[in-house]
Design a protein that fits this description.
mainly alpha; about 65% helix; globular
Length: about 130
Amino acid sequence: MASQTCRSTTDQVRPRRRRVAASAFAVVTSLTVAAILTACSGEVPEVSSDDAVLVLGREVYSRNCVGCHGAEGQGGTGSKLNEGTVVANYPDPADQFAVIANGKNQMPAYTGRLSDDEIEAVVRFTREGL
């Protein structure tokens, strides 16, 4: 009789453990996603709407670069670009253009995905807008 009682008690506890585990997993997952979104959130800096090239560069950066370099160029998976870092690393904008076009290390090549005008615009935006 005691084993029957233990078995039925155990059977009642198992579904509850599963519900608690599933709830805990949902909470941890929600918190993790929230933390990731918070870390990735932020606004790409605004630029003067009078400068069409910078506006295009900001748009290209927002669509293609934020995921790795951060909204403000603070870095992440990709290298830091803000606070003059990109200019220090690539004094000649043509060298930065080549890295974006051809890729380097973890940086994918954007030739074929972006036009030369878009690459030039994002080069200028990262140098002047971040």
